[in-house]
Amino acid sequence: MKCPLTLIAGILWLTGDFVAQAQFRAPGGLPPGFHHALFDVLGAGPAFSGHALIHLSDGTNKAPETLSCDIAVLSGTMRLEVDTFETGTNVPPSEAANLKEMHTISILRPDLNRMYLVYPMFHSYVEVPYSKSTGTNSTPPPNIGKSFITNVMVGIQGCVESDWEVTENNGEQYGLLVWSATNLNNFPIRIQLGSPPVTVDFETVHMETPDGSLFVPPPTYIRYEGIQEIIQREAAKPQTAVSP
C-alpha cells in the first residue's frame, strides 16, 4: 500500500518538522518545541516506558486533536513514537486509516546533540541537531524552577500540581504545568504547555528499563539530509491507489 504524496508531505510536517515550524508560545518566552519541552520534564527522571495521549487544542470549543503515542526514557535520552490518530483529529476520515500505518519515531539524544526523526514506512530517518549549537558535544540540561500549586486528583491518581519555569542553556524560557503522581514516585502523569494548551496524559507507565536499541535509528534504515529529500524520493516512485 502507498499513501498519496499529499498525505506523506502533511504527516512528515506534523511529526517531523514540528520542532522547527510549530513551536508553542507559552507565557514568558518561546520554548524550543514540543519534543524538547517534553524531554525537559521526563529526561532527568528514571528509565521507563509508557503509553500516552497528546491533546492538541486550537483554542476554540472544538474537540482537540488527539495523538496516541509511546514514550520511553533511558539515561538522559528519549524516544517518542506516534503510532495512531484517535477520534477527534481533524484529518479527513478517508485518510485517517492510512495514518495508522504512518507512525513516526523521534529519538532525542542531547548527549550527542542529535535528534533522529525516523519513518518506519520509508525505512529511513533524518538527523538534525538537538540544539542550535554545532557539532556533537552534549547539550547541557535546562535550569528548572518548580512552584507548588495544589494537591489534586487526576483520574484515580493523587497528584501534586506544580508550575515549572524552564530556562534553556541558550536563554530561552517557558512555563509548564505538571501533575506528579504521589503513589508513582512523583512521576509526571500529566504535562501541559503552551497557549492554546497541549496536554500529555499518560495512560500506562512501566518502570522497567527499556532496551537501549530503541534509542538509535535502525542500522538498516537510510539516512537522509532532510525531510524534503524523503518526499522527493517518494514522489519519484510510481504511485498506486490506496487500499480501501
What would you note in describing this structure?
With 244 residues, this protein is α+β, with helices and mostly antiparallel strands. The protein has one domain: outer membrane lipoprotein receptor (LolB), chain A (Clam). Helices cover 16% and strands 40% of the residues. It is built from five helices and twelve strands. It has a twelve-stranded mixed beta sheet, covered by helices on one side. A hairpin with a 4-residue loop joins β5 and β6. α1 packs antiparallel against α5.
Quick check: average pLDDT?
79
- Structural class based on helices, strands and sheet pairing: alpha+beta
CATH class: Mainly Beta
Please report the number of helical segments. Answer: 5
Number of strands: 12
CATH architecture: Clam
Strand content: 35-45%
Write a brief structural summary.
The chain is of the alpha+beta class and 244 residues long.
From the structure above, extract its key features.
single chain; alpha+beta; outer membrane lipoprotein receptor (LolB), chain A; twelve-stranded mixed sheet; 16% helix; disordered N terminus
Draw up the topology in text:
Elements: H1 5-15, H2 18-21, H3 34-42, E1 48-56, E2 65-74, E3 77-85, H4 93-99, E4 104-109, E5 114-119, E6 124-129, E7 143-154, E8 157-167, E9 173-181, E10 187-193, E11 198-206, E12 222-224, H5 227-235
Parallel strand pairs: 6-12
Antiparallel strand pairs: 1-2, 1-11, 2-3, 3-4, 4-5, 5-6, 7-8, 8-9, 9-10, 10-11
Helix pairs in contact: 1-5
